[in-house]
Amino acid sequence: MDRFALIETGRGVFGFVLRESKLVATYLPQSRRAIVALIRTEFSEAVEDDALLPGFQRDVVAYYGGKRVRLSVPVELSHLPPYRRMVLEACRKVPYGTTASYADLARATNNPGAARAVGSAMANNPLPLVIPCHRILCSDGSLGGFSSPLGLEQKRVMLRLEGVEIEGLRRTAKLRSRVRAAKVA
């Protein structure tokens, strides 16, 4: 049975869905009505349970309060195509407060020509924040896209919360090496 919880943050309501003991979906902050509608669209039989993952809930509130957190919670990605799963697993390793490019993730998955496929995986990320697709930028350092309902503004907010300077943002060799170090085996 799928269960979901809603978390009040300083930026709106964050939602997540749990299947057994693993996250299957997260929803970035918006209005309570919007989050519930999104969850009901995808998980019509899900039951609300505000007691789910209390540590994770505290970490989400802390994150949106500007505190550095490490979101280590079990996730369920087995239903996704293999390459998309590999990209998302590589993205999850991009450290807090850093960025990488779509091309960096393509290289980290041993598929250097697959930057567009990486972009598609990011656009269809079922677990934003937990899998930090907001940290992935274009090769020239520009923000690129963000499929959140609040769009690029939400990406900017999340990067600022992590202390990433938005103006004049450019990727550096140091950041590229961090992604290679996190390379998926």
Describe this structure in words.
The chain has 185 residues and is α/β, with parallel strands linked by helices. The protein has two domains: 2-64, no CATH class; 82-181, Winged helix-like DNA-binding domain superfamily/Winged helix DNA-binding domain (Arc Repressor Mutant, subunit A, Orthogonal Bundle), CATH 1.10.10. The chain contains seven helices and six strands. It has helices spanning 32-42, 54-64, 82-91, 102-108, 115-123, 151-161, 173-181, and strands spanning 2-9, 12-19, 22-30, 47-48, 100-101, 136-137. The protein has a four-stranded mixed β-sheet, sandwiched between helices. The protein has a two-stranded parallel ribbon with strand order 5-6. A hairpin with a 2-residue loop joins strand 1 (2-9) and strand 2. Helix 4 packs across helix 5 (115-123). The longest helix has 11 residues, at 32-42. It is globular and about 40 Å long.
Summarize this structure briefly.
This protein is an alpha/beta fold and 185 residues long. It has helices spanning 32-42, 54-64, 82-91, 102-108, 115-123, 151-161, 173-181, and strands spanning 2-9, 12-19, 22-30, 47-48, 100-101, 136-137. The longest helix has 11 residues, at 32-42.
